[in-house]
Specification:
The chain contains six helices and no strands. The protein is mainly α.
Length: 176
C-alpha cells in the first residue's frame, strides 16, 4: 500500500481515537456526578451513561487506538531512519496509551459502583489528552526545528491555562 494512504489512515484513526478519549472523559465526569443525584434520577442516568460509555469505549475508542498503532507501526517501518522527534513521538503515544488504559480502569470501577475520583479530579484528568494532542502535533509538524525549551515551556503554559480554566469553571458552577 502506498505511504500516503497509510499515513491518511493513521491520521483518521488518530482523530477518532482522540475523539473517543475526549468524550469518554466527559462521560466519566457525568457518570461520577450522576452518582450523587437522588433516586430515580441517579439510576436512570447511571444506566444510560454506562451504556454510552461502554459503546464508546469498545466500539470506537479501542478499535481506533489499535488501528492507530497498526498504521503507526507500518509508517515507522516505511520511514527512513529513527530521528529524535520520532522517538519522542512514540514515547508520547505510549504514554497516551497508558492514559487510555487508565480511563478504561476508571470506567470499570464506575461500572461496579466505585467512584474513587471526584468530579473535579476527573475534569483535570480529562485535559491530559489535550496536552498530548498539542505535543504530538507540534512534534510531527515542526520536527527537528522545535526547541526543547520552547516546546516544554509552551506545554507548561497550556497546562497552566487549562488548570485555571477548570478552576474558573468550578467557581462559576459553585456560584450558581
Amino acid at each position: 500500500m502506498d505511504y500516503a494512504y497509510i499515513k491518511a489512515l493513521h491520521i483518521i484513526f488518530v482523530i477518532t481515537w482522540f475523539s473517543g478519549l475526549f468524550y469518554l472523559g466527559r462521560l466519566l465526569i457525568y457518570n461520577r456526578e450522576a452518582a450523587d443525584r437522588p433516586e430515580p434520577e441517579k439510576e436512570i442516568l447511571l444506566r444510560q451513561l454506562g451504556i454510552m460509555s461502554r459503546r464508546l469505549l469498545f466500539a470506537i475508542t479501542w478499535p481506533s487506538a489499535i488501528l492507530t498503532w497498526v498504521f503507526g507501526v507500518w509508517l515507522v517501518r516505511l520511514y527512513p531512519g529513527w530521528p529524535v522527534w520520532l522517538l519522542i513521538k512514540i514515547g508520547l503515544v505510549v504514554l497516551l496509551s497508558l492514559y487510555h488504559i487508565s480511563l478504561h480502569s476508571i470506567y470499570r470501577s464506575q461500572a461496579q459502583g466505585v467512584f474513587g475520583w471526584s468530579g473535579f479530579g476527573l475534569r483535570i484528568w480529562n485535559e491530559v489528552p489535550t496536552v498530548f494532542l498539542i505535543a504530538i502535533v507540534m512534534l510531527v509538524v515542526v520536527k527537528q526545528n522545535i526547541s526543547l525549551l520552547y516546546g516544554l515551556g509552551g506545554l507548561m503554559v497550556i497546562m497552566l491555562v487549562l488548570l485555571l480554566a477548570i478552576r474558573l469553571y468550578k467557581a462559576i458552577r459553585e456560584k450558581s
